[in-house]
Amino acid sequence: METGIKIAMEGQEPSNTPYRQEATGSTKLKTVGLTVRYGDALALKDVDLNVPANRVTAIIGPSGCGKSTLLRCFNRMNDLIGDAQVSGQVLFNGSDIYAPGVDATDIRYRIGMVFQRPNPFPKSVYDNTAFGPRVNGFSGDLDELVQNSLQRAALWDEVKDRLKRNALTLSGGQQQRLCIARALAVNPEVILMDEPCSALDPIATLAIEDLIRSISAQYTIIIVTHNMQQAARVSDETVFLTAGPDGAGFVVEHGNTRQIFTNPADERTEAYITGRFG
């Protein structure tokens, strides 16, 4: 079993922390004093958060409170934004993914992301699913891997007879499940989802929610959503963010989803969930 986070710089030894810590309830991701700026604008401030392994964590909060910014910190997508400045720590299985020399590309394979709108490549269904393994130099049975990934994404039965068809001919819900299959094909530990159902109709939304629940025992899933009912339906834990007077997002409350939605500890959480603000 490969261990540690890959180091891009020659001569540096990888961490001894194993990639996979499968025990449900153990901490998969942890932020310590996480602060993010875009230029002079403060987006997140001093976020301390523990994300448990093999559970679904929902991030909720009003627009502009930094939910998507926080999500992008977990796999270093903010590196792709020119004026983004990230300080503090993001620990993945105990190793800081922002430490000098850590390979951000490797992190993004280990911590996959599904975006708000389906974004399949203009390639066949097969080639979309096989894209990541091919880039990684996968040498096993690619047909088997593609089938297995599509099955885990609950899409195989719908596309098995049209694997060579352009993925853009699929429905929106099928495209989003294909994007999930594409993420699963590289065997990630964590899947980040940024409003994955916002562009979908109710039937497609239900299919994605069912999929999230069906794979949650094998993957750590973090979902950003504005839909309170969706957060309540799919998540085990919920994080409520809001923005302070300086515009920076911070964690108000984090706990068991049932407790957050039925007996929140902070009145700001209750006001947001009941629609009195946000």
Distinctive features:
single chain, 278 residues, alpha/beta, Rossmann fold, 4-stranded antiparallel sheet, 25% strand, globular, disordered N terminus
Fold and architecture overview:
This protein has 278 residues and is an alpha/beta fold. It has a single domain, classed as Rossmann fold (3-Layer(aba) Sandwich). 31% of the residues lie in helices and 25% in strands. A six-stranded mixed β-sheet has the order 6-7-8-3-9-10, sandwiched between helices. A four-stranded antiparallel β-sheet has the order 2-1-4-5, covered by helices on one side. A hairpin with a 2-residue loop joins strand 4 and strand 5 (95-96). Helix 3 runs parallel beside helix 6 (172-184). The longest helix has 14 residues, at 202-215. It is globular, with a radius of gyration of 19 Å. Mean pLDDT is 89; it is low at 1-24.
CATH topology name, in short, is Rossmann fold
Strand proportion, as a percent range, falls in 15-25%
Q: What would you say the CATH architecture is?
A: 3-Layer(aba) Sandwich
The CATH class: Alpha Beta
